[in-house]
Design a protein that fits this description.
One of its GO terms (biological process) is tRNA methylation. This is tRNA wybutosine-synthesizing protein 4. This protein is of the alpha+beta class and 682 residues long. The chain has two domains: 308 residues, 3-Layer(aba) Sandwich (Rossmann fold), CATH 3.40.50.150; 342 residues, Kelch-type beta propeller (Neuraminidase, 6 Propeller). Helices cover 25% and strands 29% of the residues. The protein is built from 16 helices and 38 strands. Helix 1 crosses helix 3, helix 3 packs across helix 12 and helix 3 packs parallel to helix 14. The protein is elongated, with a radius of gyration of 28 Å. The N and C termini lie far apart (60 Å).
Length: 682
Amino acid sequence: VGSGSAVSLSRQVQGTGGSSAVSKCSAAARGYIQDRFLRLLAGRRRRRAPLIHRGYYIRARAVDHCVQDFLLKTQNLPRTQILSLGAGFDSLYFRLKDMGLLHHTVVYEVDFPNVACQKAMLIKGMKALSALVGDTGREGLGAITFSGDDYKLLGVDLSELSELERTLEEAGLNNEIPTLFIAEVVLTYMENTRSDALIQWAAEHFPQACFLVYEQVHPEDPFGHVMQQHFRQLNTALHSLAQYPDCEAQQRRFLGKGWTECSVMDMNEFFTCCIPEDEQQRVQTLEPFDEYEEWHLKCSHYFVLAASKGMEPSWTPLLPSMTVPRHAGPVEMAGCVPAAVCARLSGVPGLRRYGHHSVLIKPHVILTTGGFGEEDGQHSRMRNFHVLSKHAGYWEAVCVTQNIPDKRQGERLYHTVSCLSDTLALVVGGRTSPSSAGLGMLWLKFPKTCNASGPDDVAVELVSLQPAAEAAALRWRHSTTKVTFKGEQYLFVYGGRSALHPVLGDWHFLHTPELSCSVIAVAGPVPESRHSHSACSWEGGVLIAGGLGAAEQPLGSVFFLRELEHGFQWQKIETHPPLVPRYSHTAHVHEGKLLLVGGVWFHASSVPGVTVIDLMTGLCLNYVINVEHLEWPLMLHNHSSVFLPNEKELLVIGGGGNCFSFGTHLNPEPVLLSLSSILISH
């Protein structure tokens, strides 16, 4: 790299540090992290979204967990030191000093020379900071931009190892005392040969040391592709990922470069295992939140690693060895399902959406409503419907304007649509924003001739509900399923969440068509409360699968609500091997088999494809989706799908979401999944 381009590259990397300081500052302002120094160092202030707050909370929590563990385990030693690599405008030193944790520890921070100079000026110019360091009055010399008794700030390019070593020696770093190295999203911006050399240098030159890393992982799944693309566009490519794509590769990297112990976990594991339950609950209730999929995907694409060598056996590791079953083990796949773009539907922008609902209103005619997506080049909640119909072997789509006086009623996410006849459907629940109360119900009335060649307007009517039925409607991420009891048809509304309750476990029977709430006895083991589950009609009852439970943990249970003479009974369906817990999937029943499509799970080694559960035997088989014919990442969460029994195909419409700070990804066009090879009748 020529020096000119190297300078511009270092500027781009510094930009990521400034951006992360602003995000941490915003998270602190909302109470996620306690840190009064961030705002003094971050410069500009900007309020970030709840998803970003959670992301920076877990990052700060992981680093703090390991740093405080190191200080605790070495508190009886005469001297220790911390070396923060690529520290940027981080407040670590000031926080630790303020907490009284640095009695015998010196903190060294290293970053690009201009970053270190800026930070030194900030500290000198701000009494709240300089008073903590104890301004020595000494001017910084050369690469040492600030020098206090227990705080040294160095301006050195980390990739220049010999210069780094010389400057650290000059600043007083002592190779013989226990040292904690911190690299928080730093090594990945360096060429692998240089970051590897740095890891090995630290192991070779420091007999007693720990090395803490927090950075990205899993580049090849759909979320990983979007993540990589984002950093490439910023001109800050993530170099580590190609050579070290998963947690196991990172662990091997450190063990192969002179470190004797190494524990690593992704952030879903860290949140579950290392954050006490009361603290989890505190964070989950700080502000209205409804982006679970993106939160869990973000967490599965970042890891924290703690390596050590030469430390007392009682001190290691900084991270606990996994006390729960590891999520990273591969999920066994029984085969694959081919995916193909649906010809002729690629140019329909209104089909790029998520949190919507699609329903087959009659053979080969599909109605898609609601969600958040792209219309007229803008991202917004979707007001218009789309009707898809199949003619001469091809799918076509057309937009239908809905006429409804209350605009809010028409723009809903995470609702359900149930078809009661070929001219009538019922919309139940949904939301506008996560802080608003749920929405009620709507009748959708369409003419018998409704299809994409000339759809007449779909008439929309607000349903005036009796108070008893109101409770059924004010929810989202729920399910509404047709059931039969004593020959009468009901809609079974189950689970979901509301503005007041993060997860619901209640149910309601609505008698159709007048939607009166009926009391029907239900026996058997009650399923755990859940939302974002799937529900299908089967044999007059309902099959419930997966979902997100009370502690924001995916569920792997399958229940059948079975009709009996005097009511219904919950019955647990045992699957073998056990169903991998998941949520935000879709589901269909075909010839005694339950098909689960996509979703989010915690097994970071792969993404959910199609799972087939034989309802007679409980046999559970997972199939990977073959996406080689797609030119874009297929995100199968917050999507909708329609099963076409004659063709043995699944039409997947929409899906995707807001990928942390990496931008919004919406699947650009509907996709057909061919199931003929996996649905062969045995």
